[in-house]
Design brief:
Elements: H1 11-21, H2 25-38, H3 44-61, H4 65-79, E1 85-86, E2 89-90, H5 91-106
Antiparallel strand pairs: 1-2
Length: 129
C-alpha cells in the first residue's frame, strides 16, 4: 500500500504527531477521533490503534496501570494488520515501544506503578519517502 505524500495528509493526522511529540497524549486522542470516525473502514483500526497508543501514555502519566496495559494491548492488536510503513509512519517504532512497555508492565510487581520515562517513549515522524 502506497502512503500519500506529507502535503496530502489530513491536518488532523499531522496534528496527532505534533501533540504526541509534545507529550500531549490526551490531545492526540481528541484530534484523531474525528478522523477515525470519518475514515474509510479499511483505515479505522489504524487510527484507532494510534489513538490507543497515545491514550496509553496518558494513563501511564496518570498512574493508571490497568488502563495503560489494556490500551497498549489494544493498540498492538489494532495496528498489527498494517505494514511496517503505513501512511508515512514507521510502525516498527510504534511496535518496539509497545513491546518495550508491555514487557516492563509484565515484569512489574502487582502493586508497582511504572515510572513515566519520556526517553523511552518514541518521537513519531512521518517519512518523506
Amino acid at each position: 500500500m502506497t502512503s500519500p505524500k506529507p502535503d496530502t495528509y489530513d491536518d488532523r493526522y499531522l496534528e496527532y504527531f505534533a501533540f504526541f511529540n509534545r507529550r500531549e497524549f490526551w490531545q492526540c486522542h481528541e484530534v484523531l477521533e474525528d478522523l477515525w470516525h470519518d475514515c474509510a473502514s479499511g483505515e479505522r483500526y489504524f487510527y484507532q490503534g494510534l489513538i490507543q497508543f497515545a491514550a496509553a501514555f496518558h494513563l501511564l502519566w496518570r498512574r493508571n496501570m490497568r488502563g495503560f496495559e489494556r490500551l497498549l494491548s489494544l493498540a498492538s492488536l489494532h495496528l498489527e494488520p498494517y505494514p511496517a510503513l503505513h501512511h508515512g509512519l514507521d510502525l516498527g517504532v510504534v511496535r518496539q515501544s509497545i513491546d518495550y512497555w508491555s514487557q516492563r508492565a509484565l515484569h512489574r510487581s502487582p502493586l508497582e506503578i511504572l515510572k513515566f520515562e519520556d526517553e523511552y517513549i518514541p518521537r513519531l515522524e512521518l517519512s518523506t519517502d
